[in-house]
Design brief:
Length: about 260
């Protein structure tokens, strides 16, 4: 039985005052919950503050990205050991807002699709290894864009992203890795993936994990669903056998909504 894991990805939201209010609102709502792992991923600038507020609560902290080198002349980057030192336990890698998509504008071009920072599958793999080597648990995101879904390519894309992200890992590292299925068209759109379909695709990801790391590892690695998860759809999604949690964007910015999603797990 895999323990559910719900993570709130605040993205680029929250100054220090807002972060403090939100975390202080979350803590009492989430205290006493031990059947679900809970993670808050604020922007880098709020990590130290959030860590001091979370203190010894059962809520963990994660970062939203990292660079794969430990240190050096990489202006603007932040390494896994730096995140570890700040108290992070998790780090999101390969979020679609950081991935490159074939290096060209999409046919379904929208301002959101511009939110790419060039992370391809090889980079995601390097980041995942650097995270695990530093003692962080990467939350590795995979997911198709709308044109890929319409072309019937969803399974091939998520399989490929999963295999490439997991290259070089061993089965014994399964407990140090979390996966997240985030169909890009469902992120921030309010258009959630139907629970049956999200569960099916998470099953495809689990099969790809089994091919890479073995059947046992595939039963250990938790797979979150992300993309317009809200209090009113969380229970349906989280009741599915292959969905082990949620990676929550917008709804994690409201303590009551985040707590309701966790309660649904
Ligand atoms: P939303 O929940 O706002 O759709 O964002 C999902 C996401 O990208 C979490 O990483």
């Amino acid at each position: 039985m895999r323990k559910p894991i719900i993570a709130g990805n605040w993205k680029m939201n929250g100054n220090l005052a807002e972060a403090e209010i939100l975390v202080k609102d979350c803590i009492p709502r989430l205290s006493g919950i031990d059947r679900t792992d809970m993670v808050i991923c604020p922007p880098y600038t709020a990590l130290a503050l959030v860590q001091s507020l979370l203190g010894s609560t059962i809520i963990s902290m994660g970062a939203q990205d990292m660079f794969w080198k430990d240190k050096g002349a990489y202006t603007g980057e932040i390494s896994a050991p730096m995140l570890k030192e700040l108290g992070c336990r998790y780090v999101i890698v390969g979020h679609s807002e950081r991935r490159a998509r074939f290096g060209v504008p999409e046919p379904d071009f929208t301002p959101e699709i511009l939110l790419h920072f060039g992370d391809n599958n090889a980079i995601v793999n390097k980041k995942a290894h650097a995270a695990v080597n530093a003692g962080l648990i990467p939350i590795i995101c995979v997911g198709e864009i709308l044109t890929e879904r319409h072309a019937g390519d969803t399974d091939r894309i998520v399989e490929d992203q999963t295999r490439k992200a997991l290259a070089g890992f061993s089965s014994s590292q399964a407990s140090q890795i979390v996966m997240a299925y985030e169909p890009v068209w469902a992120i921030g759109t309010g258009e959630v993936c139907a629970a049956d379909e999200a569960d099916r695709v998470c099953g495809v990801i689990r099969k790809a994990i089994a091919d890479c790391l073995g059947e046992e590892a595939s039963q250990i690695i938790r797979i979150q669903y992300g993309g317009s998860v809200k209090p009113d759809n969380a229970a349906d999604l989280l009741s599915r056998p292959n969905i082990d949690g949620a990676l929550v964007g917008g709804a994690s910015l409201k303590a009551a909504d985040f707590a309701a999603i966790i309660a649904a797990s």
